[in-house]
User: What shape does this take?
Amino acid sequence: MFAIIAPEKIHLPPGTVVKLPGNWQDYQTLVQQLGDRSIPRIKYRPGEILLMSPLPVHGKQAHIIAIVAIVLLDLLGRDYEAFTPITIDLPKVRGIEPDYCFYIDNCAAIMGKDRIAWGIEPPPDLVIEVDVTSYTDVNDYLPYQIPEVWLFKKNRLIIYSWQDDRYIESLTSRYFPNFNVSEIVEECWQMSRDRSTSMVIRELRQKLEKDN
Assistant: This one.
């Protein structure tokens, strides 16, 4: 099946990534054309528009990682707001759609809001991205200065921390410093190969509650 990108129709087969030259107005036109559709995903970099249709494994991995974050937040009694799907854009600078984003420290600032004014209100505290098709680059988040980005790629979770105006790979999460988040996520993903996601998450809760 072929990719179709036309004024009357946009269709990408699963796993397809398309790069197009374009400006901010071109990006806005495509965003409006897609409307409320969550597929394909769309991203804007200066002079370039990327479209990606995720594979099913992409959604499963993102869901498991987000649930791990929720389990840990609940265990710690932290308040949070979570969003998916969501478009984060800074006019004429960047446009991006993370798989999940969490407001933790800044939860109160956006609680109850139907719209978020990017660049005025605080950015998410934590973003989760899954990269199956080489579509994701942590540097896409540089203009937003998001404190922490989790990138799951090749069955490995990499934690990036915002430090000195750049992203640095970190062994620990600032939100869960007493947990080996990468190990937990990778173990849950491996377990999900022969068990249901619900079973994996129940076992994770039980283990964490027992150990803590």
In short: The first strand starts at residue 4 and ends at 6.
